[in-house]
Amino acid sequence: MVRSLAVELARHRIRANTILPGWVETPMTEPLLAWERFREKVAPRVPARRWGQPDDFGPIAVYLASPASAYHTADTFVIDGGYSAF
C-alpha cells in the first residue's frame, strides 16, 4: 500500500513511508512481554537480545519528517532488533 501511495502522491511532492516496529515494551504490551512462555519462545529470536523501547523509533521519525528525507519515498523501515532477519 505504501508503494502505491508513494507512486500516486509523488507528483504532489508528498512522500509515503512506513515504520514497522517489532516487539516494543510499552504499557500495552507489558502483560504479553511478562508472560514467561512468550519470552522463552520470542526473546531468543531477537538478535538484539532485548525488546524495543519507544525511544528506538524517534530518530527514524525525525529523519522522515525532516528535509533530509525529501527524496526518500515508498519505503518501509523495519525496526525490530533483527527479528525479521532471523
Radius of gyration: 16 Å
CATH first level: Alpha Beta
| Main beta-sheet annotation | 2 strands, parallel
Taken from the alpha-carbon principal axes, the silhouette is: elongated
The largest sheet has its strands arranged as 1-2
Q: What is the helix fraction of residues, given as a range?
A: 25-40%
Low-confidence spans: none
What structural class should be given to the helix and strand makeup?
Answer: alpha+beta
The figure for the number of domains is 1
Can you give a write-up of this model?
The protein is of the alpha+beta class. It is built from four helices and two strands. The protein has a single domain, classed as NAD(P)-binding Rossmann-like Domain (Rossmann fold, 3-Layer(aba) Sandwich), CATH 3.40.50.720. It has a two-stranded parallel ribbon with strand order 1-2. It has helices at 2-9, 30-34, 36-42, 58-65, and strands at residues 17-21, 75-79.
Outline of the structure:
33% of the residues lie in helices and 12% in strands.
Entry keywords:
2 strands, single chain, 86 residues, Rossmann fold, alpha+beta
